[in-house]
């Protein structure tokens, strides 16, 4: 895969400039509230959550509601110019209708996380958004946070 100069600059800027958080390797459950883990091979660092939105755009919409459930559609657009291998989203009080009521993503009830993409190729830059979905027991979408992005 060919990396653009801007993409490399963005990644190294996020990883190495202005270390205001941890310099240790991190994962989706190791950064403090308000920050996420960004990693590239063996280097990882916690960064302020606002910086995640310079890498990806996340949008979740209600696609339909019924008396006992609601269907949601999520889209993630890679805007950083480099292929993203994995994104972990934190979802607390996530009441799925049933364990199979999620597609193009994986849900961990134990860690209260959604992991995307659900295939090996990752999310390519500036292409069609990656789409996933789920059905919850009610129409109230709980807060969703970005916990980690891995390149």
Mean of all residue-level pLDDT scores: 85
State the distance separating the first and last CA atoms: 12 Å
How would a textbook summarize the main sheet? Answer: 6 strands, mixed
Q: What is the domain tally?
A: 1
Strand order within the widest sheet? 2-1-10-5-8-7
Structural class: mainly beta
Description:
The protein has a single domain, classed as Immunoglobulin-like. It is mainly beta and 151 residues long. It is built from one helix and ten strands; from the N terminus they run αββββββββββ. A hairpin with a 4-residue loop joins strand 7 and strand 8. The chain is 8% helix and 41% strand. The protein has one helix at residues 5-16, and strands at 35-40, 43-48, 56-66, 69-78, 86-91, 102-103, 106-108, 113-116, 130-136, 144-150. It has a six-stranded mixed β-sheet with strand order 2-1-10-5-8-7, with helices on one face. Residues 16-23 have low confidence and may be disordered.
Quick tags:
single chain; 151 residues; mainly beta; 6-stranded mixed sheet; 4-stranded antiparallel sheet; 10 strands; 8% helix; globular; extracellular matrix structural constituent; signal
């Amino acid at each position: 895969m060919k990396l653009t100069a801007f993409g490399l600059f963005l990644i190294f800027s996020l990883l190495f400039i202005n270390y205001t958080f941890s310099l240790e390797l991190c994962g989706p459950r190791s950064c403090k509230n308000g920050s996420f883990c960004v990693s590239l091979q063996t280097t990882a660092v916690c960064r302020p959550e606002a910086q995640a939105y310079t890498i990806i755009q996340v949008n979740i919409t209600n696609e339909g509601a019924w008396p006992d459930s609601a269907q949601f559609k999520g889209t993630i657009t890679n805007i950083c110019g480099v292929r993203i291998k994995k994104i972990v989203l934190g979802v607390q009080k996530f009441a799925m209708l049933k364990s199979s009521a999620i597609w193009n993503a994986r849900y961990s009830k134990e860690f209260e996380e959604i992991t995307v993409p659900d295939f090996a190729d990752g999310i390519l830059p500036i292409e069609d958004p990656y789409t996933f979905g789920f059905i919850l027991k009610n129409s109230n979408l709980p807060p969703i946070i970005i916990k980690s992005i891995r390149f």
